[in-house]
Amino acid sequence: MGFISEESIQRVADANDIVDVVGSYFPLKRAGTSFRALCPFHQEKSPSFHVNPSRQSYHCFGCGAGGGVLRFVMDYEHVDFPSAVRRLAQRANIPLVEEASTPEDERKHGLRKRLLALHAEAALWFHHNLLKSAEGAMARDYLKSRGLTSEIAKSWKLGYAPESWDALLNHLRDRKFSREEIEQSGLASSKDDRPGAQLYSRFRNRVMFPIHNDYGEVVAFSGRTLEADPKAAKYVNSPETPLFTKGRVLYGLDKTKRDLIEKNAAIVCEGQIDLISAFEAGVRHVIAPQGTAFTTDQARLLKRYVETVLLCFDSDAAGKKAADRSVPALLSQGLTVKIIALPTGEDPDSLIRKQGPAAFLKLVESAKEYFDHNLAEAVASGELEDTAGKSRLVRRLAPPLALVQDAVLREALLGRISTRLGVSPASIRAGMKAPMVERDSQDTGPQAAPEDVISLTEGMKMLGQLVLASSEVREWLRTQTPLADFEPQAAILDKLSRADFSDHSPLSAALMSELSGAEERFLSSLETLRTAPDPLQRAKSTIHGLRIRQLEQRIEELKSRVGDSSLPLEERQKIQKQILDLKIRMADLRRPFDQG
Question: Which of 402, 465, 454, 394 is nearest to 424 (CA)?
Fold first, then answer.
């Protein structure tokens, strides 16, 4: 399979009228030249979701969601770009032209199809062993002891791996899977790396949990031991394979994603049984990482569905460390993190079985935001009774605090922590900066040689003149994207736009004292050009041009990359999606949205 040509993508987009597509999901009402509805992406009482037929785009003036027909299908269905193209192509009965791929791409695609078929076959075999085989009696008894009925086992396709070195392998060979495919699946391994070495089953005498990706395909397994031997690993998981990367998959997501979207929150459980118990008890907005701590990829995946994450790890030291390790990845993606405080010795499964789902939901509702939870714990443990304890807590909380994306929330949290600890905000800020020395080196020593000269484009220089000339321009720029996002060295103009000084008057000594030598030299070069007619309109026009130029440059960069035949198929598809998104954004800039 190759990657979808740009011509095919455009044909699909042209053939699917956005009003018809959106209207097939929920009713639209005409409002002037556009159509209106309650936004499907956030809770609202008055409709702010508009679909514009002339521009073939949608936009929500409440939450900011927007784009074209492909973006709508991606966001509403939570599918990737190629899947959205294929769904709309099928809807419009358009044959897709997929450009030729390299032999390596074809090999990888073929292997993926075979491995998916192999995993599906293995899952059926494990499942049959659990339900029907005499050997599976011990596994059935174990699941029953954990409150998991045969109906639940069927729903989750749970299985049993018998105490055999080769029963599964023989079954897969009978189904015409090759030795190479069995090895690549991770379901078998050998004691040495010699070619032709004896293979043996990775999973033996274990309850099997198939791991699905978010499309519902089995990509790996987790096996829970039934042995009493304390030396035996409690859980054995599939190794990383062409199908499975542990840090990119969330257990249960294929079943729970609609509930996640509806609740706009995800309860993160440590293990599969905790998740299944909660789900079957009616608490369905749950997921579990593969391994305890969250990765950035998992956080990014979860961000597609929710804004709030509630960590529900064990209350012991290991559980607390796992929560602390998960927080940076989650905060870095702009997610709000809360902690569910479980009673000592309990997990979601045991709590639900003993006290029912209502007791668990009560703990969910009382979950504290991560920083407040840590403060409350520190007070309860007596950690704040001496200076050393306060210092330890600041060192623990400051680095994740720096990762909070919302500036207003970050400042509010900093103020709260400062007040509760009786520690100056400056001390906490110092701890926040410590991990970012490399990214923010201008705060930690002499300026590096490349920063001795500030070099800006002509358009940005014009903005510098306007910033100096007009308080109206400065006020407007405070509400816009930072100029440093266009050109890093334009951070000096962001600094000036936030400053308080009179038009056409010398800059205050206090402000000048905050500038580096390079910044002062740059400003002095603008002193003779501080007047301009209609400065606000010129500033808006300049920013508009900068945004379009930035998007054009990025599109050209991506186009040059997508033409690289050595690039993996999946990467090229991602780049195609990025190009389409950027073109939509550029069209939005060139043709203001009609609010109807």
Answer: 394
